[in-house]
Amino acid sequence: KNKILKKTRHRKISLVRQIAIYLTRQVCRLPLAKVGEMFGVSDHTSVLYAIRKIEKLKKENPQLGEEIEFLKTKLLEG
Predict the structure, then answer these.
(1) Which of 13, 24, 49, 60 shows the greatest Cβ crowding within 10 Å of its Cβ?
(2) pLDDT tens digits for 36-66?
(3) Which pLDDT value is given to residue 60?
(4) Considering only CA atoms, which of 24, 48, 7 is closest in space to residue 56?
């Protein structure tokens, strides 16, 4: 949890943080600024960047897209 919330640019941690931001926005439907606040991201445009990046990655990597959609479904279930 702590690694996801830190402002590290390590690729794996950044990807996990971006997926978490994407899922938070998709599942909770919170404003970009609120999602950013939750993850320690000061600018809503950074949140928007993360969301768009994950949307792009889902198209480029169908397996990753399926895994993200699986997580989204589980979050919506309970």
Answers:
(1) 24
(2) 999 998 899 999 999 999 999 999 999 999 9
(3) 97
(4) 48
Instruction: Please say whether the beta carbons of 21 and 35 come within 8 A.
Output: yes
CA-angle at 28, arms to 33 and 12, nearest 5°: 75
How far apart, in whole angstroms, are the C-alpha atoms of residue 3 and residue 65?
23
Which residues are CB-neighbours of 40 under 8 A, at least 6 positions away?
A: 5, 6, 7
Q: Which CATH number, 3.90.226.10, 3.40.50.150, 3.40.50.300, 1.10.1750.10, labels domain 2-77?
A: 1.10.1750.10
At 3, which amino acid appears?
A: K
pTM for the whole structure:
0.86
